Amino acid sequence: MSQCLFTRSLAGSGLLIAALLATTPALASTERLEAELRALFAEGGELSIGDVSSAMLRSRYTAEDIVFNSAEGERLMIGSYVVDGDYDQPERVTLQDIRVEDSLTELALLQVEEVVLNEPSRAVFPLREAMGGQDFQLGGLEIDQIVVDLDSELAEEFLRDAGVKRGRGRLDIERLYGESLSADAIGLLEINGLAATGEDLEEFGSGSLTLDSLRMEQWSGLENPEVSQLNLLVMENFAIDSDRLVGRLDELRIDGDLTDGEGGMWLEAFEVDLERMIANAPVEERTQLRMASNLLTDGSGTLKLDAAFNGRWEQHNDHSTLGGDSRITLHDAMQLAFGVNLPVVLPENTQPMDAFHDSRLLDAATLLGGDLSLTLSDMGLFSRLVTVGAALEGITEAQMLEQARTQAQGFGMMMGPEVQAVLSGFVALLEGSASELEINATLPPQSNLKTYTDDPLGLPSQLSLQVETR
């Protein structure tokens, strides 16, 4: 989820949360609550409030049966609006039985069972300041049972940011929970039990989507994308079943907090039903798509992928060390593992973790040697490549392999023994005499990335390469 999409979707709930709160100076009173609610809806429609009262034994102020008819033809209804505690510094603001409907058809556009705002900085925020004003702050947020009509004005901006025009459908969210919320930062935001069904949603087509939970922690710099940082994102049990895309994901985890010396991204049990998607593709594209699917899935039609990208850094007296271990596994096809360990001298006033957020810093860094490793493991893909390649060329598999050997020797003669060793390792994978190819490279001291990017063809001779097959 991009920052722009997130902030706008939160502001989309803004019509709901915007109708929330109130601020004022001294002694709290029912008159102040009513006056500020009326001021909140002073322009663009008609407001009625059934009853405003205060509790006898505690600081509680309640407005009931709030109905606002907007000039655009929408009706907002709030069963009760309750302010607990000191009116100028409320402990809690609670809204119950919220409904936005088309005033002509009375069809529900949005429904919310309950909204609880803990420790809001004001009791009622003017609409223009809700979720965006510099003084907007919430200690906590709880919203239960949200239902949105995807064909409504309320959903249009959210869908537009996702690249989708307004479509027909429904979005349900069991619970939304947040802590330490302001216009520029989010301490915690968690969405649980999301389910959506829709029709004609652009590239998504028609279908359904479910998500057990989405959790984001310590998201800062919301108002400045250049410095925005999200420390942790965890998505669990996501599934989509539509005309264009059919797949599921057990977990996505992103650790963006590198202050502890490590971070990364992990993808667990990502599956895509290629067979279902191919059936919905244009007829003229299906043959090539099915061939690619058979290569990657061994005929099952289901692509299964796991991935892990681990980054780490260490600060020493006169240099830094950047490292990491990454792995991508295409089940029934192949696995690619990559490791890096680079001692570097970064530009002045630069922290090692900055290089993970801005790769341009590496262009100006001095590399003090280092090691790179790449391991390619065959899990069935290479033998299928030989079969398909031979069929496309109209030759036997033996002839296909002989061509590959000849080409490896030819490139080796032109580009050196290092390249020949790598290409010969690929040939060993194709013919099945090896199931794993490992390449280890040692970088020379006192170099930089420009050393290699200016002469990519000379790269093998500049590195100390070791190639092994197993």
Automatic annotation (TrEMBL):
Key words of the record: Signal
Signal peptide range in chain numbering: 1-28
Highest taxon above the source species: Bacteria
Protein name as it appears in the record: DUF2125 domain-containing protein
